[in-house]
Design a protein that fits this description.
- This protein folds into three domains: about 90 residues, Winged helix-like DNA-binding domain superfamily/Winged helix DNA-binding domain (Arc Repressor Mutant, subunit A); about 100 residues, D-Maltodextrin-Binding Protein, domain 2; about 110 residues, Periplasmic binding protein-like II (D-Maltodextrin-Binding Protein, domain 2).
- About 35% of the residues lie in helices and about 20% in strands.
- It has ten helices and ten strands.
- The protein is globular and about 65 Å long.
- The termini are far apart.
Length: about 325
């Protein structure tokens, strides 16, 4: 009986083992969190691999996911979120409803504090939870119903029901000590493939301006530190610019775009009981007309400060 149905159902404990293992990065730690033995975790991952028909982790050291594993992890998170919500709301001991709010990973230190403070100020009876992710993940979770409200930038077509939309300008940001020289290659702070990186290189290519990648890194905090330290410039929305930076006003830099941005909700969400929260969230997320000089500087971790000489390699104007 078990073998006949083995590939038609995936037990949630297998999905939870995958998510926990990936999040904590160790079989030993995953076993401690799930109160299981390490061989039990290994057996659950092995069983999930058999059900899905292929490897979930690349062979070798580390826990790098295969393409199948990446897909499985994405779906596992969504399935477990819905499972846990069902248990919380309709289980034998139902807990209070939770409104889950999604924010982009590039939100800065101050912005996250502001959003959490306004959302946990007792404006509604429901509890409020938060999630940071890439825009694609936020859109996907809104569609799956595992996220209630999300702030999403660079909207071409509304990905979900609209709560509010507005235009948000981007700016060239730089450190106050960085002096740009007309005719010299422009130093860029980059995350290859990211939205700001794609916009920056397209604008510079169209303006026939050469550039170099002066700093590259996947973490937004490290890139902001590099900008503040004067390594190079980067396109940013106003909300991300800190007092350690300034807007580059050099005339020869191409004018940055203005992007459609907004708050979106999952299908079927009743806004009436949470209207005070929605209004406060919209107010704190809409960009300010000017940078507020009264804000204290955002702390930059010492390990994020770039070291050494500027520029790591030269690129032609047509390079990504």
């Amino acid at each position: 009986m078990f073998n006949r149905h083995a590939k038609l159902n995936i037990p949630t404990e297998l999905l939870r083992a995958l998510v926990t293992l990936k999040d904590c990065g160790s079989y030993t730690r995953a076993a401690e969190i799930l109160d299981l033995s390490q061989p039990a975790i290994s057996a659950q991952i092995a069983r999930l691999k058999i059900i899905l028909g292929g490897e979930l982790f690349e062979k070798g050291l580390g826990l790098n996911l295969t393409r199948r594993g990446t897909l499985a992890l994405s779906y596992a998170r969504r399935i477990l979120a819905m499972h846990d919500q069902l248990i919380t709301i309709a289980g034998p001991n139902p807990g209070p409803r939770q409104v889950l709010i999604g924010m982009p990973r590039w939100f800065n230190y101050r912005q996250i504090i502001d959003v959490i403070r306004v959302c946990t100020a007792g404006l509604i009876e429901d509890k409020v939870g938060f999630r940071c992710d890439e825009s694609e993940g936020l859109v996907r979770d809104l569609s799956a119903g595992t996220l209630d409200i999300a702030f999403i930038c660079n909207v071409v077509e509304p990905p979900a029901p609209v709560i509010a939309m507005w235009d948000e300008p981007f700016y060239w940001a730089k450190g106050p000590d960085l002096v740009l020289t007309p005719g010299a290659p422009i130093p860029l702070v980059s995350c290859p493939g990211s939205l700001p990186d794609r916009m920056a290189t397209r604008l510079l290519d169209e303006a026939n301006l050469s550039y170099v990648i002066a700093f590259s890194g996947p973490e937004h905090a490290s890139r902001k530190a590099a900008v503040a330290a004067g390594v190079g410039i980067m396109l940013m929305p106003q909300r991300v610019i800190t007092q350690h930076m300034e807007i580059a006003s050099d005339d020869y830099l191409p004018k940055p775009p203005t992007l459609r941005t907004g708050l979106f909700m999952r299908e079927g969400l009743d806004l009436n009981p949470i209207q005070p929260l929605v209004q406060a969230l919209e107010q704190v997320l809409k960009p300010r007309e000017t940078l507020d000089p009264s804000l204290p500087p955002e702390p930059l971790p010492p390990e994020s400060a770039p070291q050494g000489r500027r520029g790591v390699r030269r690129q032609s104007a047509g390079s990504p």
